[in-house]
Structure formats: structure tokens, C-alpha cells
Amino acid sequence: MPTPRIPPLEPPYDPEIAAALAKMMPPGSPVEPLKLFRTLAHNFRIGDRFRVLGSGILSKGSVDPADREIVIHRTTARCGSEYEWGVHVTFFGRPLGLTDAQIAATARGGPDDPAFTERQALLVRMSDELHDTATVSDALWRELAKRWTAAQLIELVVTAGFYHLVSYVTNAAGVEREEWAERFPPVSHG
After folding, report:
1. Are residues 80 and 154 in the same domain?
2. How far apart are CA 40 and CA 46, in angstroms?
3. Based on the domain organization, do 28 and 104 belong to the same domain?
4. Closest to 103 measured CA to CA, from 118, 119, 112, 115
5. Residue 79 maps to a domain
6. Is 5 part of any domain?
7. Is the pTM of this model over 0.90?
8. Residues 6 or more apart whose Cβ sits within 8 Å of residue 15
9. Is 10 a domain residue?
10. DSSP string of 58-88?
11. Range of the domain at 161
12. What is the mean pLDDT of residues 161-171?
């Protein structure tokens, strides 16, 4: 792993930082505050705003959690953020029942990968179009609107955008992978 450009804060934390980090982690979490959160803690004001939107997406959203994770996995993979992809695969994707093939396809497959359901393929297409063009084509939007409400479509687009932000931070700051988090699957040469 490369040396981080901005090393995560280490304990003992200032009381204000300790309280903020505690809010960022699930209650009773068996792991230390994530390196990403401890990196963001260098700028308390930004880290606190980051927490609010992230929590809104992860715990208060109206989108099915498995759909949300397909968007997050694909977005972070397309951005090359092995850090965030691995954290989400470990904490969310596997516990939600995404298969090995589906998880691998978020990083190495295309929207037509047979591991994806039709619904998941639409989410991968949306994530790819947003990543490549910063918008969604009219034809794809019509397909998405048949399955998700207007409120859910806003949430899906915001989720993709937020995880671009997360990827920018992890990549630019050089946040080291969590030791327990999954790695990108190897590139298949066949």
C-alpha cells in the first residue's frame, strides 16, 4: 500500500473529534473508526457535513439497499477506489446477499454481465453513464423511471455523485485500504 498523503488521525483524539468519529461509525462497531473518517477529521467541518449526507444515503434512504450497493460498488470501482469498494463489499454487499459473481461484475464486468439481474443492469448502466458523461440519456432515464419513483431517482443520482466524492477523497488523499476489506477481483484474461 502506498504511503497516505494525509495520514489518518490516531488516538488519543480530541474530545470533539472522538465524538464525531463515534457518530460516523455504527453503534457498537467492532472496528476502529475507518481510515477515511479519520482522514476527513483533519477538517472537522467538512467531515461533519460528509457524515450527514452519507448517513442519509445509507440509513435513511428509500432505495432498496441492494440497489444502492450496486450503484456504490460500480461507482467506486469505476473511480478506481479499491478502498471504498472493499469497505462496501465487506460491510454491505455480502451481508445483503450479493453473490460473488455480482460483486466481481461491479468491478470487472459490463452492464450485460450475466451475473446481473435486469434491474441491476439498469443501475450499472446509470452509474456508467453518470461516470462517463455526467448525465443519463433520455432512453435510459425512461427505463429507470418505470422501476423507481422520482424521489428514488434523485436518491440514486445523489448516491452516485456522493460516492464519486468519496472516491476522490480516498484516491487523492491516498487513504490506505482497511486490512479487513475486500480487494478488487483480479483482471480476467480469458
Report:
1. yes
2. 7
3. no
4. 115
5. yes
6. no
7. yes
8. none
9. no
10. HHS-SS-HHHHHHHHHHHHHHTT-HHHHHHH
11. 65-173
12. 98
Dig out the grid coordinates for 144 from the structure. 429507470
Residues 162, 76 within the same domain: yes
Q: What CATH code is carried by the domain that includes residue 109?
A: 1.20.1290.10
**pLDDT level of residue 3 (50, 70, 90 thresholds):** confident
Residues contacting residue 82 through CB under 8 Å, at least 6 positions apart = 177, 183, 184
- For the residues 107-133, what does the mean pLDDT come to? 98
* Mean per-residue pLDDT, 53-77: 96
3-state secondary structure of 139: helix
pLDDT digits (tens, 9 = 90+) for 74-86: 999 999 999 999 9
Distance CA(150)–CA(148), nearest Å, equals 7
**Statement to judge: residues 79 and 162 lie in one domain:** yes
Residue 184 lies in a domain: no
| Residue 26: per-residue pLDDT | 81
Backbone φ and ψ of 186, nearest 5°: -65, 155
CB 6 within 8 A of CB 174: yes
